[in-house]
Amino acid sequence: MEKDVIVKRLKNNGYRMTNQRAILLDLFLADSSQSCKELYYEATKIDSSIGFSTVYRLMNSLESVGAIEKNSTYVLNEAEGICNNSHHIDYHEIIECITCALDAKDARTAGHSKRVSDMCMQTAVLLGLDDSEVERIHIAAHLHDIGKIGVPDNILNKTGKLTKEEFEIIKKHPVIGAEILSKSERLSDLKEYVLHHHERFDGKGYPDGLMGKDIPLGARVIAICDSIDAITSDRTYHKAHSLDYCYEEISCNMAKMYDPDICREVLKNWEKITQFVLK
């Protein structure tokens, strides 16, 4: 497909051609056999500020206009693997270490944060958010449950029903997570997303009972993706439910638990969002 045709189709889909994206498109057209990782490496030689979410967004958009045939799972997995240049390596290695520590503490939910972050990244792109915000939400989603490190094992791993007092302790994990992130200069700007990912759109969530658009956007995205994975995974309080059941639960809680705009976008792209859950 010729460049002018691709650009026209991208623009018709609402894709804005920035200088960074133009660089990536030219490199892609010069050698369309390159993987996302290779494309990223070549692009950063020209502009070192290009992030992995910019590559992901372009590849996802090229797929949507028929310029490539790769499926979204491949695109995302490739994009996940490119975060090892000097700008990102310490950032993502630290995040991987932290989430692995959380998985070790609660093995039954191992992989939960990764699945939620994948769904959040896909959702953020579909919402048309800019590349920097896509990346912030993606990273915050990786770390959304990090505060559970501060929850006693006997409560976190309890197989029976939690007492009221135990549930109040569990509810402290967003605050603990935000406090942990506040200690890092690089991660502190994500703390509000982690702090408020259990707020509800109707104001009945925690820790602060925020309502509607007062809840940070990233937290609203994480909330719905977190629920999808929780519903479709085995937990101490329920067996994994089907995706059909999950769809109905998410739909029924539109404007109650979840931002209706985000909820509609997720439901409209259900298969694309839920490709990352356990099946």
Could you characterize the architecture of this molecule?
Helix content is 58%, strand content 0%. The chain has 279 residues and is an all-alpha fold.
State the main characteristics:
globular; 58% helix; 16 helices; 279 residues; mainly alpha
Kindly, what is the distance between the CA atoms of the first and last residues, rounded to a whole number of angstroms? 36 Å
Kindly name the structural category. Answer: mainly alpha
The best one-word shape is: globular
What fraction of the residues are assigned to beta strands by DSSP? Answer: under 5%
Element-by-element helix/strand order:
HHHHHHHHHHHHHHHH
Helix content: 55-70%
Low-pLDDT windows of residues: 71-90
Report Rg: 19 Å
**Global mean pLDDT:** 84
Largest β-sheet summary: none
SSE diagram, text form:
Layout: H1 3-12, H2 19-30, H3 36-46, H4 52-64, H5 72-80, H6 89-105, H7 112-126, H8 131-142, H9 153-156, H10 164-170, H11 173-181, H12 191-195, H13 217-231, H14 243-252, H15 260-268, H16 270-273
